[in-house]
Predict the structure.
Amino acid sequence: MEPTIDARQQGTSGLPDFVLRHFDRQSDDYDHLQLYRILQSGIRQSALPAGLKLPPTREMARSLGIARNTVVHVYEQLALEGYVQAGVGRGTYVAQLGLRPAEPATRAARRVLLSRRGEDLVEHAGAARLQWGAFAPGVPEVRLFPAQVWNRLQRGLWRRAAPEQLTYATGAGDAGLRQAIAEYLQGTRGVACTSEQVVITSGTQQSLLLVAQLLADPGDSVWLEDPGYWGARSMFRAMGLKLLPVGVDAEGLAPTRQQLRRPPRLMFLSPSHQYPTGALMSQRRRRQLLDYAAAQGVWVVEDDYDSEFRYGTRPLPALQGLDEQGRVIYLGTFSKTLFPSLRVAYLVLPPDLVDRFARALNELFREGQTLQQAVLARFLAEGHYASHIRRMRAVYGARHDALIHAIRQQFGDALPVIGGDAGLHLVLGLPRGVDDHAVAHDAQRAGVATRPLSMYYVRPSAAESGLLLGYGAVREEEIGGSFARLAEVLRAHL
């Protein structure tokens, strides 16, 4: 701990009194560390004023009862850091630092630490503190990940890793992974692409940042689903874009005639499983929006975050597969299908954008994880990814059914279940007037994680009341008991 030092006169020995008062010969600290901290603190707090001559090293050592080499080392370190100035035959003097004693920051001073943009970002932050357990939305079951298979592949690649795989990444990502992703998307999602159109990123948020920075300027407008993904909203706001909320109906994004008259620069959609309502965009609406985007020069950003998990029906092909004019930017991620901390996502871009996005990615982020990308490439190429998806689709389907059963046991048909046929969450509708923020707060105190539906709206006037319930990270046998605790909280608010 730094001593609190008042300005003192030099002692009769030439040694400042405060050094004698604060140097403890019985301390467990090393002598050089203790002396260094005392002198540094004195200089920073102006107790040792600029221009003060320090005692010669021999005199300082004798007065404190320590080795002279210890004092020499401390003086040299202070000179190296600019606290003192020393010269042969001249002695050692306290340097002029221009410092003032530290004063406690006032409330107003603390508030100006962030820019207006930073304050706005923090104030509207939507990231949840709890990322595990019942009923945290959007969290997959990581305990069933085939870690042994992954570790085997990883060990094999580490044994023959090339230097290029351990340095900064260049280009659009590991070539093998880009090829594996392209083949997977062609076969399962109807995406029309080659491996050259795939750019690997460190998560969907980084993909969104690149889109916002490279395809829009501050002040440009972006259509957002309302309700919609808070992460896209936060990223576009932070990049200075004008947020234009567009309502969602049973067929997906539903712009009004007035909104259609003023085309945006970007259009952000989750057509295969609208987040958070679960709406599936119809083919008619898809065709209408693609034709509009082509005619008006709008970039369509398609977020296909968890379409692998659909129960009872096959996943609808991606919007990108219908795009004939090169207007769709397709976003995918492995966070929901494998595990979030892997931090691997990807963009599928029109061919003329790929090189520009890859160069911007390398310039801004100096990407890495090349070896991890190679492991993932092998994981996909050898069929382990497809096997894991099949297994988890069955697991999540059973958990989905168990949660709906628990809801019906507690409330019958009194509370509607919205968007409950796909993904890792469903929405439990609440009566108008129920404060879903208060319900979520009380549920957390009861040990149950959930999120209020109203927080996903840009327009408070349009907000519906409800709860997002994620079932991905809770075992089937634990769902009934966990929902029973939530039901007790709900009854206090209904």
User: Anything to note?
Assistant: The chain has a mean pLDDT of 88.
